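FW: tagging you since you asked about this chain on Friday. Here's the raw sequence from the shared folder, copied in full. Didn't touch anything.
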Amino acid sequence: MSLVHHPTLGEIECVRSVRARSIRLVVRSDGSLRLTYPLFANRSRAIAFAESRSEWIAITRQRLAKRQAAYPTIQQQEVERLRREAREYIPATLSHLASKHGFSYTSLRISSAHTRWGSCSGRNGISISLFVMLLPEHLREFILLHELCHTRHHNHSVAFHLLLDSLVDGNEKRLNAELRKHRIPKISE
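HL: got it, structure written out here
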């Protein structure tokens, strides 16, 4: 891996890869570039490829900047408040919902994940982002039920959706649509 400073594209992280079959260009969420290329291609050819995609890079960076600007932000002290609330709310509510609907899970982790509201491991360990505390209570419970359903179905199969839908009185699609309107905030510095 090497960093190249391009006069118009800025810093490019260049990675020559044994597994690469073609030249691949990625614009990361912060606007930086990663250029991966196979062993049979040299770096100047890969950079020429990036230069040929300069218009796409500019459009992608603008789109990402708009998306980032639209993201809500949160202060660190607010994160600490949410963490305290999550430690009180999530374990008790998850335990209640599991007991009420006949689920079991092996562990619970409250994280500060920014990419997803929750997850369930193959061993039925549940992880919930503390940022669920920013959601209305009915959406928090929906997320917890979603992860509990994964303790029975470790996928998003028809059986999984039927189970989840039965637990939310046939409102899974409506609740998913409502949840998509919310975003996990980024922490301002």
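FW: Residues 14 and 35 are 5 Å apart (CA to CA).
HL: agreed, and The longest strand covers residues 10-17.
FW: great, closing this out.
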